[in-house]
Write a structure and sequence with these properties.
The protein is α/β, with parallel strands linked by helices. It has helices at residues 14-25, 60-73, 121-125, 135-138, 154-163, 183-190, 285-304; strands spanning 4-10, 30-33, 47-48, 58-59, 77-79, 83-87, 93-97, 101-109, 113-115, 131-132, 146-150, 169-174, 195-199, 201-207, 214-219, 225-229, 232-235, 239-241, 271-273. A hairpin with a 6-residue loop joins strand 14 and strand 15 (214-219). Bound molecules: NADP nicotinamide-adenine-dinucleotide phosphate. The site of NADP nicotinamide-adenine-dinucleotide phosphate has 19 residues, from helix 5.
């Protein structure tokens, strides 16, 4: 049996790296299992203007690299493997990747959330052929083209504006006429001459054989169908928590968000959770970081109060 690690952190966004920083600075042996795409959602954003301490904003990738390096400086070790299976039914807890088995006295889950999909077959069929959930990653491929962004939140507004750097025209399609986005983002989007709002419409089908050629829409109030010709569709319709592998082992709500029982501790003593896999209200980099800090402090105190 391998060495038992004090704290295993699963996930590598602001919550995971902040938890790693705090747990390492508490002199605990910490392993962070990052998955094959470390960094979380910050790596798919552009400039972050609302993370305190950066007057002129900060690049999402740059910020997350700094967080990672900061935790490493205090001793956090990393494994970029994906977690395949966990067993929280006994202590030490078991966490398995494809190639290794870890044993931990405490675990902090910080697996975040992934983009929500519409769930229609044509979206799958034309995935990466004009359908994308990452404007930052794929916007460049739509230079001189017409695209749509779906959603009425801050992500949709931010990405609509970002896409106008490349596309000649951006439709912002939303199923209602009220927005969740903040006023500043709505105003910025409304003032962008390349963006046209298409409201009270749902996407029924993504059209095209080899690549996206358009969308079939339905009016949410009258049910009237219509079509829009375009070259790409970007999804910005929220997120779903990445908690599938913990199903049946810890308490979650019906949407799959982990429900902490005492501070950041889950219903399983010694298993803590932080960030977007728990939080469907705030979902900010700064709140995820704060959560990671709280989880590390809770884990440290819980470990200190016990001899395992
Ligand atoms: P969000 O605020 O949850 O908005 C999701 C949008 O997608 C909503 O308008 C929702 O419509 C729509 N939607 C959900 N499911 C849908 C479906 N099946 N079909 C069509 N539309 C659907 O998500 P978000 O925009 O990703 O933002 C998440 C959090 O990050 C928020 O707290 C936001 O403030 C924050 N954020 C901040 C910034 C910034 O400050 N620069 C940038 C990005 C994100 P309904 O409104 O009708 O439900």
């Amino acid at each position: 049996m391998s060495e038992t690690i004090d704290v295993i952190i699963i996930g590598a966004g602001p919550a995971g790296y902040t938890a790693a920083l705090y747990a390492s600075r508490a002199n605990l042996k910490v392993f962070c299992l990052e998955g094959w795409q470390p960094g979380g959602q910050l790596t798919t954003t552009t400039v972050i203007e609302n993370f305190p301490g950066f007057k002129n904003g900060v690049d999402g990738n740059a910020l997350i690299k700094e967080m990672r390096a900061q935790a490493a400086r205090f001793g956090t070790e990393y494994d970029t493997a994906e977690v395949a299976r966990v067993d929280f039914s006994h202590r030490p807890f078991e966490v398995r990747t494809e190639s290794r088995e870890y044993h931990a006295k405490a675990v902090i889950i910080a697996t975040g959330a992934r983009p929500r999909m519409l769930g229609i077959p044509s979206e799958q069929r034309l995935w990466a052929k004009g359908v994308s959930s990452c404007a930052t990653c794929d916007g460049f491929f739509f230079r001189g083209k017409t695209v749509a962004i779906l959603g009425g939140g801050d992500s949709a507004m931010e990405e609509a504006n970002f896409l106008t750097k490349f596309a000649v025209k951006v439709y912002l399609i939303h199923r209602r006429s009220e927005f969740r986005a903040s006023k500043i983002m709505i105003d910025r989007t409304k003032n962008n001459p390349k963006i046209e709002f298409v409201l009270n419409k749902t996407v029924e089908e993504v059209l095209g054989e080899q690549r996206v050629t358009g969308l079939r829409l339905k009016d949410a109030q009258t049910g009237e169908p219509s079509e829009l010709k375009l070259d790409g569709m970007f999804l910005a319709i929220g997120h779903v928590p990445s908690t599938q592998i913990f199903k049946g082992q810890i308490a979650m709500d019906e949407e799959g968000y982990i429900v902490p029982q005492k501070h950041t501790m889950t219903n399983v003593e010694g298993i803590f959770a932080a960030g977007d896999c728990v939080d469907h209200r705030y979902r900010q980099a700064i709140t995820a970081s704060g959560d990671g800090c709280r989880a590390a402090i809770d884990a440290e105190r819980w470990l200190a109060a016990r001899t395992l």
